[in-house]
Design goal:
This protein is mostly helical. The chain contains 6 helices and 2 strands. The longest helix is centred in the C-terminal third of the chain and has 18 residues. Keywords: DNA-binding.
Length: 136
Amino acid sequence: MLSKKTKYGIKALTFLARQKDNTPVQIAEIAKNEHISIKFLESILLLLRNSGFLGAKKGKGGGYYLIKDPKDISMAKVYRILEGPIALLPCASHNFYEKCDDCDDETTCAARRLMTQVRDNTLKVLESNSLADIAF
């Protein structure tokens, strides 16, 4: 199941993508419009800023804004930053692979085969959608 952190991160990014002229938006405005706790949203936006998706401007007229064009923001990258691995099992992951302790043979493991298919299809959907695709 998708975490609230990832759900709220996607909602905040789409809200920012819809701003005219990439105008900075204060956290309180995003939180109010998207029904997200300000404190929780602060941590999410900081993570997205540190990952290179957002910029921040201090002072009057300040707030968060996108530093990349929405069409250049892959939802797979957003997902990995906010949620972590796309695969549901560590042995089915490309980027976060770990061998399962209870598995004698990965090549015959039915759970791994199934979860690899789930990963591949989920990845296909996430990689084929940019922030622009879902925001507009």
